[in-house]
Design goal:
Layout (H helix, E strand, L loop, with lengths): L17 E14 L2 E8 L2 E8 L4 H7 L7 E10 L12 E12 L16 H6 L1 H4 L3 H23 L3 E2 L17 E3 L7 E3 L5 H9 L4 E9 L11 E10 L3 H20 L9 E3 H8 L13 E2 L1 H4 L5 H4 L3 E7 L7 H11 L10 E5 L5 E3 L7 H11 L6 E7 L1 H18 L10 E5 L4 E4 L4 E4 L14 H4 L8 E6 L2 E8 L4 H10 L4 H15 L6 E7 H8 L30 H6 L8
Parallel strand pairs: 3-5, 6-9, 11-17
Antiparallel strand pairs: 1-2, 1-4, 2-3, 4-5, 7-8, 9-10, 10-22, 12-13, 13-16, 14-15, 14-16, 17-20, 18-19, 20-21, 21-22
Length: about 575
């Protein structure tokens, strides 16, 4: 055997045993006639001791070991004279008798330590080295634990794990598809699934009743910290259920995962909020409710005072930053510049300082008296020492801008504790949204989402006001998952396709297989999908999902380790009946 024990296993009760260990050299230290080497594997670190008085040649050999050499040793477990309380193995060390270098190593391009000197691109290029760091392995361990506990929980309530195809048909809704040419069918293409949506609905028609899958999905869209071109979903569907059944079932899953994987228990039911309320109070359909700073509609107290910007605005919003009246003019100018950045798009920002002595100072004193500003303070519920920040404009735009400012202030004031978790169900989304460019409705979620029963009539009268029987679970400002009760009636599904601008021929071409299946007795059904990457990153207190994925892509969608995507040679292109058009 290469080893009898791992590097994190030995304790004081192993003293006197002869053991064989194998692993990587973390670091070495020379102290007179002694050499100490830290040997590392996935399970921990054990100190090795080489003594020139016992074996001078062996000690000299130990001093030739470089960082990340792969070695095997045989030795005796002894008690350390200078214990390390920071290591589980810190009470013992190995008095080495034999040393075998299994593989020498080049000096790595960055230090294999929790606090490394490697930048993001460099670490992604050498991801196999980056994964050796405990801080990355801990993230992958959390991901493994979450996946394992998900399977255990869903299996315990009779869900069946069923695989669905990766090579499917391209559909026009949602993000761009990744497409795959078919050699056997020249000129035709598969698409990689953005989700197994239609297949899990077909499994409900098949009588599976409770399906789940921890599955790869693919979307060709612009990337950011919580988005990758290939990602993993906990994908679920249930038959003979209503919305309440879905929420209760998967609230139970999330509680189970936090208890078993983070030892965190949530008290009571998760709070719920309608989409309309979330947008009105926070300007987001995934609000971070770890802190307050809710929106205040100031229209009733700021209009008709001669300040043109407010008079012409559709909506004027204010938020209260507690104990921030001490902000200097320089700090306030910096905030104003921040909201005026193209990514935010505000025209400017107004502020009101409610000083400790009760006086009020604003950037619009020319237009508003102290009595006017007191009305602002009362409406916002501000107290002496607080700062009111105000934005104005078109309703949808100013809500988004104020949401960004609120989150920015939450970060600046340390209100977004990554180890505090606040879940929230967001319900009653709009079923459809109007697109000015295409001059037609698009599905807010997807075309198979059922409208609320009481809103079915609105599909004819006023489609834009129809609410979806849909729900999202948000936590700490992140959408962890979402789903809906599906349409299971062919006639209603056909009406939905009509509203979305599909011709009968297009609907039959794209989704005829699903419509046909509905004619053979489709049960009422609904489901939800959680982003596994986002879930574990949130549980791990991180903003980026990259380190929770073994081999992620960079912001350009490239794998810089294997240099993908890459060109195909001419023979491959011809075999696939493809030609590359030079730009």
């Amino acid at each position: 055997m290469y080893r009898t024990h791992t590097c994190g296993e030995l304790r004081i009760n192993n003293i006197g045993q002869e053991v064989t260990l194998a692993g990587w050299v973390q670091r070495s230290r020379e102290m007179g006639g002694m050499t100490f080497v830290d040997l590392r594997d996935r399970f921990g670190i054990t100190q090795l001791a080489f003594n020139s008085e016992d074996n001078d040649a062996l000690n000299k050999s130990s001093r030739q070991l470089g960082r990340e050499f792969v070695i095997q040793i045989v030795g005796e477990v002894i008690e350390r004279s200078s214990k390390n309380t920071n290591l589980p193995t810190g009470d013992i060390e190995i008095k080495v008798k034999t040393l075998n270098v299994l593989n020498a190593a080049k000096t790595p391009p960055f230090t294999i330590e929790n606090e490394t000197d490697g930048g993001d691109e460099l670490r992604m290029q050498y991801r196999y080295l980056d994964i050796r760091r405990n801080v990355i392995q801990d993230k992958l361990r959390l991901r493994n634990k979450v996946a394992l506990e998900t399977r255990k929980y869903l299996d315990s309530i009779h869900f069946m794990d069923v695989e669905t195809p990766y090579l499917i048909k391209s559909t026009p809704e949602g993000a761009r598809d990744f497409v795959v040419p078919s050699r056997m069918n020249p000129g035709e293409f598969y698409a990689l699934p953005q989700s197994p949506q239609t297949f899990k609905q077909l499994l409900m028609v098949s009588g599976i009743d409770r399906y789940y899958q921890i599955v790869k999905c693919f979307r060709d869209e612009d990337l950011r910290a919580d988005r990758q071109p290939e990602f993993t979903q906990i994908d679920c569907e249930m038959s003979f259920v209503e919305q309440e059944d879905i929420l209760n079932t998967f609230e139970g899953l999330i509680k189970h995962l936090f208890k078993t994987c983070r030892n965190i228990e949530f008290e009571g039911d998760f709070p719920r909020m309608t989409y309309a309320e979330a947008m009105e109070r926070y300007g987001s359909d995934k609000p971070d409710i770890r802190f307050g700073m809710e929106f205040n509609n100031l229209n009733s107290v700021v209009k008709n005072k001669g300040f043109k910007i407010f008079d012409e605005a559709e909506l004027v919003l204010g938020i209260v930053a507690e104990d921030c009246a001490v902000y200097t003019r320089k700090q306030l100018d910096k905030l104003t510049d921040w909201v005026k950045r193209p990514q935010i798009g505000a025209q400017g920002m107004v502020y009101v300082k409610y000083n400790e002595d009760g006086s009020l100072k604003s950037s619009v004193d020319k237009f508003y008296s102290q009595e006017d500003l007191k009305e602002w303070v009362e409406l916002c519920g501000a107290k002496p020492g607080d700062l009111i920040l105000v934005l104005s404009g078109e309703t949808d735009k100013v809500r988004k801008q104020m949401n960004e400012l609120r989150l920015h202030m939450g970060d600046e004031l340390g209100l977004r504790n990554p180890n505090e978790f606040k879940p929230l169900w967001v319900l009653d989304f709009p079923l459809l949204e109007w697109d000015e460019d295409t001059q037609r409705y698009h599905a807010m979620h997807h075309p198979f989402t059922s409208p609320k029963k009481e809103d079915v009539g609105l599909l004819t009268e006023d489609p834009g006001k129809a609410r979806a029987n849909a729900y999202d679970l948000a936590m700490n400002g992140v959408e962890l998952g979402g789903g809906s009760i599906r349409i299971h009636d062919k006639e209603l599904q056909s009406r939905m396709f009509d509203l979305l601008g599909f011709t009968k021929e297009q609907a039959a071409e794209q989704f005829g297989f699903l419509m046909n299946a509905f004619e053979f007795g489709a049960p009422p059904h609904g489901g939800i999908a959680f982003g596994l990457d986002r879930l574990v990153a949130t549980m791990g207190g991180a903003d980026s999902i990259r380190d929770f994925i073994a081999f992620p892509k960079n912001n350009s969608g490239r794998d810089v380790m294997i240099n993908a995507p890459a060109n195909l040679d001419e023979d491959q292109l011809q075999e696939l009946s493809l030609a590359v058009k030079k730009s």
